[in-house]
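Supplementary Note 3. Input sequence used for the single-chain structure prediction.
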Amino acid sequence: QTALSDGGYTVGPPELIIEVASSSESIDLNAKRRDYEHAGVLEYVVLAIRQQAVRWFVLREGAYQEMQVDAKGIFKSTVFPGLWLDQEALCQLDVAQVLATLRQGLESPEHAAFVQQLQSRRDASS
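The predicted structure, written as discrete structure tokens, is reproduced below.
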């Protein structure tokens, strides 16, 4: 999706945008969400401070669908395999648990396969 132009400039929409929202929750969950959806951002995450919630949207067939946590309360990125976020730990500011969950994701087979895929792409373009 995002790529480098011949001149070395980044072109295309980002794969993932994360917003931390307090007073801007309404803007982030409405206007910005529509803008990012229209631009083709694949995943959009809003950490809604006042609601103490994480809202994770995934672009499917041109429209955002809200992702739900798994049975353990974990969000798992579809764009970046291995990017796992523990919603409750993040909202409770439990940094140790947030980091533990991130580490689990980075140690997952899905992440290893993703890293291998990226390395193969880099090798092919060299």
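DSSP finds five helices and eight strands in the chain. The CA atoms of residues 88 and 94 lie 8 Å apart.
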